[in-house]
Give the backbone structure.
Amino acid sequence: MPGGNLTIIGLCVAGGLLVVLGVIGIVTKVRRAFRNSILGQIYNGVKNEVSEGKVGPEDFSMKQELATPKSVSDLSTALIPRINKDFPDLSVSQMQSAAQAVLVKSLDLLMAMTTGNNGDTIDRIQTELAACGIGVTRSLSEELWHKVGSARAEGKTLIYRDVIVHKGGINAYQKTESTVEITFQYSLQCLQYQERNGKFISGNRATPTQSRYNVKVVNILDADRLTAEDIKGVGFTCPHCGAPVKHLGTDVCSFCGTAIKTVDMRIWLVDKLVEI
């Protein structure tokens, strides 16, 4: 009968709607339960981080392939005898460690001073680098300060996290009439990237960047080449009359004739940090 068929169809449709509503209700309860669970809260937090640009696709790499650390051009075996002949009381290993400390501290300062502007000045760079156990030239501090200023002007934060120095060695040793230069080369790894207003803009936060740096250390044989600030930073004088000592290796003060020993790490200055 037509009326009976319509009744049956109506019952089927109603039953189907009830089933659909039941499924929707179950799905809603499951979603609510998931959202309130610890896993759901983590998911929502990550979702918000992605939408706000605080994390990127590289942060979700299930397999983080670590690149092989870069090799260094280490000529220490050939160059150390030459350095020891010219400066027999100089500890090359101590200088190499101090130069490495300046490199790592420089990256730390770039990150700290671009994370927030706390009234820092170039003098902070000069002071903190000099505390690494070797002097630094004013020009090095000025170069780092310029990088800080450029990053701040663009609203960028320079990030160098989890810094590890793999290898180090002497890459070059050069002498001129006015200077002696020792160049150390280091293989370095770190998580290196940039942010703006807390949001990722470039670099890689998942896989460490492998870098190679040359750190040039100079000894100014001609004191006239030093700027006033560099002389102040070196601060080495004759213990008897207070006259400035111009030459590393000088045995006698040129002003009062007092015998002096000038093997002092402050007379060697880190002058350049170059990523190659």
Summary: The helical segments are 2-36, 38-51, 76-86, 92-115, 122-130, 138-153, 228-234. Residues 215 and 273 are 5 Å apart (CA to CA).
